[in-house]
Amino acid sequence: MSDRGSNRRGGYVKLFIILGSFVCASPFIGLLIDVFIIFPPSSDAQGHGIPVFTILLPLLAIIVAVVATIVFVVTDMSVKASARRLPGGNYNGSLRYEYIKMFQQCDDAQAPAMILHEVDTNAGRCSVRCIYIYPNGYVENFVNKGVYVPVPTAEAIQVAGASRGQSAHIITGGEFESVWNIGQHAKA
After folding, report:
1. Count of CB atoms within 10 A of residue 9's CB?
2. Residue 123: helix, strand or coil by DSSP?
3. 53 burial via Cβ count (<10 Å: 0-12, 13-18, 19+)
4. Distance from C-alpha of 59 to C-alpha of 49, rounded to nearest angstrom
5. CB 129 within 8 Å of CB 142
């Protein structure tokens, strides 16, 4: 289980406590600024004027709290959405991705010599992303956009593909990402 999510949530709680305290205290702080700094009491004054900070400071505090909340919620959602890019492919144990590198011997130059799969083990072992590497070195990246075909385990590919010249093994998420990025640059 990763510590990243729990540390992040603890930071969010502290931040929301600070922001909440500021929002709650801002009317009183604004009143103190208005009464004692901007419009100090004097014997000849008929009134203190418009209490500017008593009104503006709470509004500013609420705006800051709302913007901070939106930023942190979007950041947290982004981290969860890109959890497959973390080493090992999991985020707090809720997502699990497996990365498989498959080699196949083939005389056809149009067929890939190596295929890398990013497999979502929580969704029936479906391939989320796939990389084809051809004998001439060309790299082609694919993102699954609705066609979900289960990918067998590396052991099953080893057993079933041995007679056809196929072999497979598990790789790290970092290795998959480095090849994925090379393929992205090759297309540009």
Report:
1. 12
2. helix
3. buried
4. 19
5. yes
Find, among 124, 114, 122, 121, the residue nearest to 183 by Cα. Answer: 114
pLDDT tens for 87-121 read: 444 444 445 789 999 998 877 878 899 999 998 88
Tokens of 19: 């922001």
Work out whether strand 166-171 and strand 139-143 pair parallel, antiparallel, or are unpaired: unpaired
DSSP assignment of 43-93: TT-S-----HHHHHHHHHHHHHHHHHHHHHHHHHHHHHHTGGGSGGG-STT
Between CA 10 and CA 110 the distance in angstroms is 52
- Residue 105's SS3 state is coil
Q: What is the pLDDT of residue 2?
A: 41
Distance, CA of 82 to CA of 163 (rounded, Å): 37
- d(CA 72, CA 80) in angstroms, rounded, equals 12
Q: If we measure between CA atoms, which residue out of 164, 149, 78 comes closest to residue 117?
A: 149
| Helical ranges in 82-97 per DSSP H | none
